[in-house]
Amino acid sequence: MKKTKKWIALLLVLTMALTLFTGCGGNNTANNDKVVESRTVIDATEREITVPGEINRVVIMSTMPLCSVYCMAGGDPDKIVGLTPESKNAAVNSFLSQVADLSDVSTAFAEGEAVNVEEVMNLNPDVVFYNSWHAGDSAAAAKLEELGVACVGFTTDIPSAIESVSTWATLIGQVLGTEMQADKIVAYGQDVEKMVMDRVAQIPEEERRSALILANYNASGISAAGTTFGRYWLATIGAENVALELTQKVAPVSLEQIYAWDPEYIFLNSFSAFTAEDLMTNNAIAGHDWSGLTAVQNGHVYKMPLGMYYWFAPCSDSPLALQWLAKHLYPEQFTDIDMDAEIKDYFKEFYGVTLSDEDLHTLYNPPAESAM
Q1: pLDDT in tens, the chain (372 residues)
Q2: H/E segment holding residue 149
């Protein structure tokens, strides 16, 4: 009997010990759930980059349309602590200002084309985003990595605007752990691109309309979109690109050259402070007479909008830009698309921003101070 009591007592002790051990293990699991593990991503340089599980301070070190994509892909804009002056100007003067107040974000690290690594370190970033296609920014990222900062490279060497945004959103989603939001962005862009290409494919070659995208136009001169994104836009909307002969990404051109091309449609990038009306009424630059051009005579000069970023460059609004361009060039192919409604729905869905009719007017008519 005594032996039986001893065994029972021993069994109770073991049971209590096991319960305590299991309880401690459960508490540890609960505590571990609060610790966000670091993540490993493959960036545009095809290297494995380890980023902190919790990211509270972000520096976008390069001038590229990444800020709006970051916000769209689930990034907290309040965590952005550094931007280049050009990116900050675009953010402050665009509709991104309705998503975040970035007016006090530091630009101190940007010194012309160079990056002041010490100033970047002063911002104490958890992660730095940079353009891996830019030699100076890549060199600065290498120095920052030696100092222990996680630097994630993004490329601007993708001709397709939709593919660029998709690639950026996917990588940002992996860095932040917001993959589901990134997947929605990618799916929408791909659906829009396919829809536009399917429709313009039905237009006979002899009915294709000629077009030119002006990358910029200011007192310094006129530049046309060459091998950069302008070529993608015009090819995707089925335009005859009059500037295909250009071999530079953005090339200076004369007004005489534009007359020789004589495009039926001209799209003016919102990097320029001039409006379409300025060109059509010869109120841009003294001595520049645009009146003899076919596009001007037919009223087919359009200023590209400025939404979350300039629509010429790849940005979070690129699926909207593609529809806008296609509808202007071939309105009869896209009669079912109401751009006002499309833009409002898109901004509500992806940014949580409700646009008014007055907002739309501003988006279609960017203010001069927003010019780059």
Answers
A1: 444 444 444 444 344 343 333 443 333 333 444 456 899 999 999 999 999 999 999 999 998 889 999 999 999 999 999 999 989 988 888 899 998 899 999 999 997 778 999 999 999 999 999 999 999 999 999 999 999 999 999 998 888 999 999 999 999 999 999 999 999 999 999 999 999 999 999 999 999 999 999 999 999 999 999 988 899 999 999 999 999 999 998 999 999 999 999 999 999 999 999 999 999 999 999 999 999 999 999 999 999 999 999 999 999 999 999 999 999 999 999 999 999 999 999 999 999 999 999 999 999 999 888 886
A2: none
* Cα-to-chain-centroid distance, residue 114: 22
Residues 304, 372 contacting (CB under 8 angstroms): no
Segment (H or E) for 117:
helix 117-122
Which has the closest alpha carbon to 228: 211, 208, 239, 243?
A: 243
Instruction: Provide the pairing of β-strand 110-111 with 39-42.
Output: unpaired
- How many residues are present in the chain? 372
Q: Quote the DSSP letter at residue 35.
A: S
Asked whether the beta carbons of 282 and 288 are under 8 A apart, the reply is yes
The number of beta carbons lying within 10 Å of the beta carbon of residue 259 is 13
CB 83 within 8 A of CB 67: yes
Element spanning 328, H or E: helix 318-329
As a whole number of angstroms, the distance between CA 190 and CA 184 comes to 10
**Cβ-Cβ contacts under 8 Å for 92 (sequence gap 6 or more):** 102, 103
Q: Residue written as tokens 């699991």?
A: 29
Write down the pTM of the prediction: 0.85
Dihedral Cα 20, 21, 25, 26, nearest 10 deg: -30
